[in-house]
Amino acid sequence: MERKYRVEGMTCSACSAAVEREVAKVDGVTNVAVNLLTNSMKVEGEAGIEPAVLHAVEAAGYKGFLEGEDKKSETIEADPFSEELELKRRRLIVSAIFLIPLLYISMGSMMGAPVPSFLEGRDNLLIFALVQFMFTTVILFLNRHYYVNGGKSMMRKHPNMDALIAMGSGAAYIYGIYVIFQLAYGFGHGDMARVALYGHELYFESAATIVVLIDLGKYLEAKAKHKTSGAIRSLMDLTPEVATVIKDGEEKVIPVEAIEIGDRILLKPGENVPVDGVVVEGISSVDESALSGEPIPVEKTAGSEIMAATTNGQGRLIMEAKRVGEDTTIAKIIALVDDANATKAPISKIADKVAGVFVPIVIAIALATGGIWLALGAEPAFALKLAISVLVISCPCALGLATPVAIMVGTGKGAKAGVLFKSAESLEVLHHADTVIFDKTGTITRGKPYVTDVVAAGISAEELFATAYALEKPSEHPLAEGVIRAYEETYGTENKLSLEHFEAIPGRGLKATLNGETYYGGNEALMDSVGADLSVIRAQLDALLAEGKTPLFFAKGNEFIGLIVAKDLVKANSKRALEKLHGAGKKLIMLTGDNEKTAKVIGQDLAIDHIHAGVLPDEKEAFVRQYQEAGKVAMVGDGINDAPALARSDVGIAIGAGTDIAMESADVVLMHSDLMDVVSAMDLSKATIRNIKENLFWAFFYNVICIPVAAGLFYKPFGLTLSPMIAALAMSFSSVFVVTNALRLNFLSLEKAESENKEESAESIDFVEIPSVKTKTHGYNEKKEEKKMDKKILKIDGMSCNHCVGRVDKALNELNGVKASVTLDPQEAIVEGEKLDSALLKKAVEDAGYTVTAVE
After folding, report:
1. Which residues, including other chains, have CB under 8 Å from residue 434's CB and lie 6 or more apart?
2. Rounded mean pLDDT of the chain?
């Protein structure tokens, strides 16, 4: 089992390495990952090991809490760095207030600035030293956590960053106290030579400046880290803190946490939805852009599903809660991002290995630096200065932040784009996948049948369509659903035909009575059984079958009257997405349970390298294993039958609209169910890992270059050294650089999916009428083109956003025979159709809530 913990007190990668090392020793622990950025730890192992894990954290010198035990970990924090940021801001301000006079006193005379007379001259050197001592003591006391934590880490033989800071600033401070005793002895015994020798050997300002500059760096680092959690905060801000619940006919405002399944919630105009549920009363539009990315609001009426973190428009809605708390869609998104941040990418193991031995090596280098310079005859103060510089500049903060900050920004960026990575490992591995395997139905295609052709024999195409609609209305067959949807989108829900009797014929179709006549609808076997002659459309039928389409035949008695053809259409963005992936050098494979002919028809216009048809669920998993022999494989799917293949692949990618089982088995979830998000996920993976490599390079390169300079390696040939203060400043800003570099990921431009607001409509239905005795066909679309088409331009007032445009567009296009295009700038609608009625058009717009100022 896996449990999450919160660890307090860690400051650098040496700290997280120490915690990992101790926890890994616990019996029953199989895997442990500590995240320095979020102060979290994930532990996998046997049940009941929690007390031992917490004891191991304490043994490493830190405080551990099991998730849920402390108040901080009961819920996912929108900004885990806000408290840390405020604490460091206050500490920095107070420390700076004492540092400014200290620097003025110690260095003012060097710059020609006036200083108090009681601090000037040789006779006042002891007072000069004591004043500096007092200011420095206050500053070091304010920053005593460096010494407390550093001392504990040294005692446990796991020295960390605080140990380096404590040793560096502490050495300068102790040396200053030593100088004070030398001055006191000199004045007390009249040894002015001793006073002259030690009078300018004070390093109190260095000790104080080191910790204040590190405070500055830590504050800037915390401020930058605060920005890395911006994606999570923006998601959590969309969920309101309170909601209006209707109970016993009364409206009560309660906390969102108190909402229970089944509660009825009132949504006023402009309010954010608190939980997932279904609308039970009212009509409004809801902005779902935070979850779907679709900018145009979606109309909601009774029966419509509605999700938390979406925003109600101008209408009043009453919804019933179906999923609350951690079960809401937005909570699951935030939890996935949080879990991903708590894991480690494989590349971070490099930094972990180095961090485990880095601090002891630095301490050894610092001691060697001081000893070698003393052996070479250097002044003790000079040798001490170089040793302190080595200690201070080598703090491994940047090393520990290199990976987690990039992971946090990358996963947050993905969450805002609808791409959810479940782990840091999936984020790293994804762009390495050289083969991408796709399920067909529901992944590449829309997953449901769309009517593409209406072929009538002896009657009009419109009459056949209306008859088929009436017959299929009670049917639950998938093709029936396609016929019903296509008819209602074309003609609306009105149908004058009266269905008097309906009978399902298993395996063949249906039998029904319409207006006293017996009709049949179903497959070719049903037509043969009732004696309907299909010879009149055999040529058209063969051509349609060759295109991978599925026919639905209809007969009146034993007289064949036509067929309606449906096809599972390719999603609007699938072709573009596959071309992008193919262009990036990926090998693309399609697996489907469909027959080979249908699979090849679907894949013929797509950038697919290989198609495997007639594949059973367990065979999909076998194909994944087969392709894994040649490299890393990413599998994209949506159904239950895809779950084994998703789990087997190196990275499983689940389409968000798919089944829960598929999403559980996957490593990446695409909330928008759009293959362009696969391209975005690949791009984000590549950019994030590149960013991590840049950060690691900087952290390693920085230490490789700076440690020799700080040790005085270039002093004799070039006169080049680093003072402890400059070393502290450089060390602090190396961490700021790493965090800032990770924030650049927020500017990464991801592929945008084209709007598919009207994807539910078939692309175009081809209406064909065949005379009962002749074989000549007449294209319905061609006949329409011969008719005179009217065109009118409506000037509209009152539209202010895309939501308004969507309402007017819907109102006009719902009129029979009308095709309208609505724009916001200028506010107008261009309408085409036969015999357009200006009054009817104007009424439709006004019913939608807007004003028509002119009709041209």
Report:
1. 585, 586, 587, 630, 631, 632
2. 81
Of 184, 182, 166, 175, residue with least CA distance to 202? 175
- Is 289 a residue whose pLDDT tops 70? no
Query: What is the pTM assigned to this prediction?
Result: 0.64
User: Crossing angle of helices 478-491/461-472, nearest 10°?
Assistant: 130
Q: Which residues are catalytic?
A: 439
Q: How does 397-434 read in b/e, with b if 16+ C-beta sit within 10 Å?
A: bbbbbbbbbbbbbbbbbbbbbbbbbbbbbbbbbbbebe
DSSP 155-197: HTT---HHHHHHHHHHHHHHHHHHHHHHHHHHHHTT-HHHHHH
- ω into 449 cis (within 30 of 0): no
* CB-side neighbour CA atoms (13 Å) of 653: 31
CA–CA separation, 449 and 441 (whole Å): 10
Which residues in 640-681 belong to E strands, given as ranges?
651-655, 668-670
Contact assessment for residue 492 and residue 473, using Cβ atoms and an 8 Å cutoff: no
φ, ψ of residue 669 in degrees (nearest 5) = -120, 130
CB–CB of 45/78 below 8 Å? no
Asked whether 449 and 460 are in contact (CB, 8 A), the reply is: no
| Lookup: tokens for 28 | 């029953």
Is residue 269 over pLDDT 60?
yes
Residue found under tokens 């990770």: 742
Least confident of 127-131, 176-180, 287-291: 287-291
Q: What is the mean pLDDT of residues 370-392?
A: 87
Q: Which of 109, 126, 288, 116 is nearest to 196 (CA)?
A: 126
Tokens standing for 13?
A: 């990668």
Nearest-angstrom CA–CA distance, 441 and 594: 9
CA 338, CA 235: separation in Å to the nearest integer? 12
